[in-house]
Write a structure and sequence with these properties.
Blueprint (H helix, E strand, L loop, with lengths): L5 H11 L1 H9 L12 E2 L7 E2 L4 E2 L1 H14 L3 E7 L4 E6 H17 L7 E5 L4 H13 L2 E4 L6 H11 L3 E5 L1 E4 L2 E4 H11 L6 E5 L13 E3 H10 L9 E2 L3 E7 L7 E6 L1 H13 L8 E4 L6 H14 L2 E5 L11 H9 L1 E6 L1 H10 L16 E4 L6 H11 L3 E3 L1 E2 L6 E4 L16 E2 L5 E4 L12 E6 L14 H9 L5 E10 L5 E6 L3 E4 L2 E4 H9 L4 E11 L3 E10 L7 H15 L8 E4 L13 H9 L13 H11 L5
Parallel strand pairs: 4-17, 6-7, 6-8, 8-11, 11-12, 16-17, 16-18, 18-19, 19-20, 31-32
Antiparallel strand pairs: 1-2, 3-13, 4-5, 9-10, 14-15, 21-22, 22-23, 24-25, 25-26, 26-27, 28-29, 30-31
Helix pairs in contact: 1-2, 3-4, 3-5, 3-10, 4-5, 4-8, 6-7, 9-10, 12-13, 17-18
The protein binds coenzyme A and adenosine monophosphate (AMP).
Family: Belongs to the ATP-dependent AMP-binding enzyme family.
Protein name: Propionyl-CoA synthetase
Enzyme class: ligase
């Protein structure tokens, strides 16, 4: 068969018989007991995949490759310009590290189903820890290092981990971020206390240890190795959770997205072959963070399930040391695919618009750039295409799905790229565009993007210990469909365009943040009467949060001083990742007659866009005041 038509054929095969499609894909995984049933519609909120199978994800990621002749092949390359170090771990070495760490976890009392929270920077031990949990059937929950103690505390409270694994610091180009004080504060804030913390002392920060709770990671792993202690793979049900990953909801309380062991493996393996086209033995660089879903799936699990080599990059696209960082990585590690967020390319373009640093590197083996995490604006996509001269693939997904919903499956065939569209639905996803009543809209018409149930393997079966919240958040609005909370349209060729969220989630430098969560923090300031946070356009980060606040009457403190306190408060309560720098004091907020704050109109004013006067507005003159306030800060 020629390449043309391979996507259509694969999608049609899935449509005709989804169970046969996933049963075939499941053959690429080594099961302990293979699935006899592929899907059980009677279980869970919309059904469960591979309900009777047992497996171990770590076995498929490591042991299997060591057994099958990949022992000496690099599994993980740590490339860290921020520390000036590089390290390579072969599959055999990685298996040794992971099985020793897994034994240490068992010695600390961690067993099947126990939760383990990881608060780790971009170092190999983060990947070892995830796999060590998988090996013994424990459920990991990685918390991104850019979150503050309170966010970490919320996750500890919800996941109730038996043990927490953390390093003493993360390294940002401008500063060393000490994790231990954040961790200690988070444990103090949480009513749930872990039995132990395994602390990895990094050379940059030697943290003092809690006398009974904290254990020294390196010493315990060294002792386990010296004693020949290794944990074996534990059999888990395919439907047992591999991990919980918290993501922003519409309030300050994050949602614990649950990922199955079995379905996750089946789909990730399928995507390596068919979507990314990365073969065993090849190298992929995913420049994200292990704290995000992209990092879970494409720094750690998918490359290893495929027997490929993954580059774990502890650095930035610019400034470590320059805007040629990605080109150096690709050339030096002979990567065939780079996966990152569009914001990284906007940052590179801003520093080096002519890509003058590129010609110094040999990128002859490089095949494709994949972008996700936020909409790839056509301008950036075309720029990347022009300089790299390889396909630049935008693809759309969510933490909830764990892998791509809409993409361009170059492993099957490269479909024509339409800048602005992540292309077409992947097998497993019946993507539709509907109006508020759930009726399909004509091609090219904006609407809510929904997915017909059941969701495919790998997508979340539920939220951690919150089945009702799962149904309310995702399944209730459009019966029979999963509500993505993204809006967009589908054109006459079936290309999907994702234009933005329909809820109050914003995307800042590819990071998903809740404006509702930020409003809760602003409202907690004693001088604030009411507030509204909107995402305003930013040339590099896509969006940045902007908080409009109305002060209580009788406040004597200057608005400037309060605004500075509010910026510090968000950093303290949510973390630097919120990138909250704009707090604007205004006299009033624009509202409808029923009291609803007109956030969308405020955003348009701040972005300098035309807006229609809302028919229900209580007092239109407030909008002029908002205009004056934003222009005072160089917006609008
Ligand atoms: N630990 C601690 N702090 C962190 C952090 C981490 N893991 N990651 C980011 N931060 C901090 C940054 O240092 C910055 O702090 P500052 O306010 O003191 O400067 C703040 O959080 C905001 O970070 P960010 O929004 O990432 O901005 P930046 O200026 O540091 O970098 C980019 C901008 C575009 C270079 C950067 O965002 C990037 O590389 N993005 C890639 C996107 C990505 O990985 N997305 C994941 C989904 S695919
Ligand atoms: P996250 O869960 O952090 O991966 O964020 C998911 C959200 O990011 C989606 O709901 C979209 O709003 C946005 N997003 C991710 N990838 C894309 C893309 N390729 N195009 C448009 N929006 C995207």
């Amino acid at each position: 068969m020629t390449e043309a038509g391979r996507y259509k054929q694969a999608y049609a095969r899935w449509q005709a018989d989804p169970e046969a499609f996933w049963a075939e894909a499941a053959q690429a995984i080594e099961w302990i007991s293979p699935p006899q049933r592929i899907f059980d519609a009677s279980q869970g909120a919309y059904g469960r995949w591979f309900p009777d199978a047992t497996c171990n994800t770590c076995f498929n990621a490591l042991d299997r490759h060591v057994r099958d002749g990949r022992s000496e092949q690099p599994a993980l390359i740590h490339d860290s310009p921020v520390t000036g170090t590089k390290a390579v771990y072969t599959y055999a070495q990685m298996l040794d590290e992971v099985s020793a760490l897994a034994a240490v976890l068992q010695d600390l009392g961690v067993g099947k189903g126990d939760r383990v929270v990881l608060y780790m920077p971009m170092i190999p031990e983060a990947a070892f820890a995830m796999l060590a949990c998988a090996r013994i059937g424990a459920v990991h929950s990685v918390v991104f290092g850019g979150f503050a103690a309170k966010e970490l505390a919320t996750r500890i409270e919800d996941a109730a981990p038996k043990v927490i694994l953390a390093a003493t610091c993360g390294i940002e180009p401008s500063r060393v971020v000490e994790y231990k004080p954040l961790l200690d504060t988070a444990i103090d804030l949480s009513s749930h206390k872990p039995q132990a913390c395994l602390i990895l002392q990094r050379p940059q920060v030697e943290a003092s240890m809690h006398a009974t709770r904290d254990k020294n990671w390196r010493m315990l792993v060294a002792a386990a190795k010296a004693n020949g202690r290794k944990a074996d793979c534990v059999a888990v049900a395919a439907t047992d959770p591999l991990y919980i990953l918290y993501t922003s909801g519409t309030t300050g309380r994050p949602k614990g997205v649950v990922r199955d062991n079995g379905g996750h493996m089946v789909v990730l393996k399928w995507t390596m072959d068919n979507l990314y086209g990365v073969k065993p033995g090849e190298v992929i660089i995913t420049a994200s963070d292990v704290g995000w879903v992209v990092g879970h799936s494409y720094i750690v699990y998918a490359p290893l399930l495929q027997g490929a080599t993954s580059v774990l990059y502890e650095g930035k696209p610019v400034g470590t040391p320059d805007a040629g960082a990605f080109w150096r990585l690709i050339a030096e590690h002979k990567a065939v695919v780079l996966f990152t967020a569009p914001t990284a390319f906007r940052a590179i373009r801003k520093e080096d618009p002519q890509a003058s640093l590129l010609p110094a590197y040999d990128l002859s083996h490089f095949r494709a750039l994949f972008l996700a995490g936020e909409r790839a604006d056509p301008d950036t996509l075309v720029w990347a295409q022009d300089i790299l001269k390889v396909p630049v693939i935008d693809h759309w997904w969510q933490t909830e799905t764990g892998s791509c919903i809409v993409g361009n499956p170059i492993g099957l065939e490269l479909l024509p790229v339409k800048p602005g569209s992540p292309t077409v639905p992947m097998p497993g996803y019946d993507v539709q565009c509907v109006d508020e009543g759930g009726r399909p809209v004509p091609a090219g018409t904006m609407g809510a993007i929904v997915i017909k149930l059941p969701l495919p393997p790998c997508a979340l079966p539920t939220l951690w210990q919150a089945d009702e919240r799962f149904v309310e958040s995702y399944l209730a609005a459009y019966p029979g469909f999963y509500n993505t909370s993204d809006a967009g349209f589908i054109d006459a060729d079936g290309y999907v365009f994702i234009m933005g969220r329909t809820d109050d989630i914003i995307n800042v430098a590819g990071h998903r943040l809740s404006t509702g969560g930020m409003e809760e923090v602003l409202a907690s300031h004693p001088a604030v009467a009411e507030c509204a946070v909107v995402g305003v356009r930013d040339a590099v980060k896509g969006e940045q949060p902007c908080g409009f606040v109305v002060l209580k009457s009788g406040i004597t403190q200057s608005p400037d001083a309060i605004e500075r306190e509010l910026v510090a408060l968000i950093r303290e309560k949510i973390g630097p990742v919120a990138a909250f720098r704009l707090a604007l004091t205004v006299g009033r907020l624009p509202k409808t007659r029923s009291g609803k704050i007109l956030r969308a109109t405020m955003k348009k004013i701040a972005d300098g866009e035309d807006y229609a006067m809302p028919a229900t507005i209580e007092d239109a003159s407030v909008l002029d005041e908002i205009g004056v306030a934003v222009r005072g800060r160089g917006l609008g």
